[in-house]
Amino acid sequence: MDSQTKEYQVMARKWRPKGFDEVAGQDHVVRTLQNAVKLERIAHAFIFSGPRGVGKTSIARILAKALNCERGPTPDPCQVCVHCREIADGIALDVREIDGASNRGIDEIRELRENIKFLPASARFKIYIIDEVHMLTREAFNALLKTLEEPPSHVVFIFATTETHKIPATILSRCQCFDFRRISRGEIAANLRKIAAGEGIEIGDRGLAWIAAAGDGSLRDAQSVFDQVVSYAGKVVADEHIEELLGLTDRRFVAAVAAAVLARDGAGCLKSIDEAYYAGVDMPVFYHLLLEHFRNLVMAKVVPEAEGMTEMSREDWTRLQEQTASVSRETLQRLLEILMAEEETMRRTQNPRLTLEMALMRMARVAPLIPIDEILARMAALENRLRSGMPAPAAREGAPAPAPALAPGRAETGADNPAAKAVQESPPPPYGETLPTPSPTREEDCGWEGFKDFIRRSHPSLCSKLAPGRLLGREGDVLRIGFPRRHVFFEDIERHQRRDITDLARRFFQRPELEVVVEALRGEGGAGDAKALKGPGDYLPNNEIRREALKSPLLQKVMDVFEQAEIREVHPRPTSAGEGERDPLPE
């Protein structure tokens, strides 16, 4: 029994890669080192940095074999010569592996400096592999500087670390640095499948995917978990065994909660959370699993063929696609945004269960969102139906078309306007195309209502923004239009759409030099205020009102006291009879 125990090796050691071709997930490092050995461009010092369990020390040993193999230097060490076997067993005299955490002082580095002067005992190079080199003291690093800059030709240093930022820049500049990456779940699962085949172990793809996920990018960690699973379940590993050992029962609750959210079943969400809580599921961990699940749902909806982006098994990916079949992308994005907004709260809260429950209740109340493309398609279909219901132009040639019915309460302003009639008698062309040019008989016939009706036929959305506006007057080639100061679209009209209004006004009034000026009304009346303006004194430009407000001494004092204060809107104080002008009130 004792002899069998001594002979047993854990999977992480037994299946450690022996050559460059067996390394998983570090192709950029392997290719560079193979070419360096092949071209005999060997640096005197290397730094291998990256997460734990991704192959740093293993590649350091393989590089030592490649340099000292009897057939070498060669990128494909033979694995059978004396040097290759001794390096693999860790007993080579000329390849020393040093733990930087326990040999971190200046005395150990001084001893190393004395030893590197001597030639190798039997190999071609003397190789020093220092693991966790960032643990060396500052004095030890300083003692290494000169040696690293001008080492003997028979010495190669290989440093491995998980924390590159702790290594002094003077050391980094004297070494070739290689950044090792986390290994993808697919590559880890493929490696575990190879081990299972070699060990005669039966396990499904879903179980391998779970073990690979437990490794979190570390192949060594995943192999250790696999070893533990085999010890628990034996040579035939079922998914239930992995679920029990790794505590994956919470994934079942994740699926139940997600189904309840998509079904807008708030009660079902609360029941699933209650069952998960009393089953011992950690609520912050459960939140992150739920966040990952909804991220995968979005991925399955947006990129149906992106299975590799989630690193899930084919079975789980198919289930995700089935779950998202009847849900729009916009709805899934909204649900994910609600979950993401609670991340900071979940990190700080003292009651994570309550926080998660409230988030799920908000998610369950989200109404299905209609994609914008579908909305536009519906609007286009409605517009086509409305247009198809209008009389054909040929039917109007013999007799005038009957006037369209007006909405109750709508004034027939502009009904006698020839320009308005010309616009009403022709269907509106798409905005941006050539519009029919009205031919008014008199300039006074071209009133504000006729102009708005002209815009309504050619640019409906712009007409709705102009509804509360008033025509202040025309002076030569300048058309002044006033809007209430609180009009929600005033800034948009003034900054972005004034050019569109000018183009339409030039066509309507047949004046190519006409310019439109947009101004803020001075009064406080809203869109329905029927009070007539009497002259230019009844309005002030918006910029002038703002400048007058900024000159107020009281406002300057407020701005000095409150550093974060900002002016969002300016309203003039109402004036009473007999009072002069008063300062505007900023908000």
Straight-line distance between termini? 86 Å
Secondary structure class reads alpha/beta
Q: In CATH's first tier, which class of the largest domain applies? A: Alpha Beta
Spatial strand sequence of the major β-sheet: 2-3-4-1-5
- Which strand-content bin applies to the residues? 5-15%
- Number-wise, the strands total 12
By CATH, the superfamily of the largest domain comes out as: P-loop containing nucleotide triphosphate hydrolases
Report Rg: 39 Å
CATH-derived topology of the largest domain: Rossmann fold
Q: So, CATH architecture of the largest domain?
A: 3-Layer(aba) Sandwich
What is the total domain count?
Answer: 5
Uncertain residue ranges: 390-446, 524-540, 575-586
Task: Compute the number of helices.
Answer: 27
Average pLDDT figure: 76
Task: Write up what this structure looks like.
The chain has 587 residues and is α/β, with parallel strands linked by helices. The protein folds into five domains: 9-179, Rossmann fold (3-Layer(aba) Sandwich); 185-246, Helicase, Ruva Protein, domain 3; 249-364, Zinc Finger, Delta Prime, domain 3; 413-538, no CATH class; 547-586, no CATH class. Helix content is 50%, strand content 9%. The protein is built from 27 helices and twelve strands. It has helices at residues 2-7, 11-14, 27-38, 56-68, 82-89, 106-115, 138-149, 169-172, 185-199, 205-215, 219-233, 239-246, 249-262, 266-278, 283-302, 307-310, 314-323, 329-341, 343-348, 352-364, 372-388, 418-424, 448-458, 460-466, 490-509, 542-550, 553-561; strands at residues 45-49, 95-99, 126-131, 155-161, 176-179, 202-203, 236-237, 470-475, 478-483, 515-520, 570-572, 584-586. The protein has a five-stranded parallel β-sheet, with helices on one face. A three-stranded mixed β-sheet has the order 8-9-10, with helices on one face. It has a two-stranded parallel sheet with strand order 6-7. α10 packs parallel to α12 (239-246). The chain is elongated. The termini are far apart. Mean pLDDT is 76; it is low at 390-446, 524-540 and 575-586.
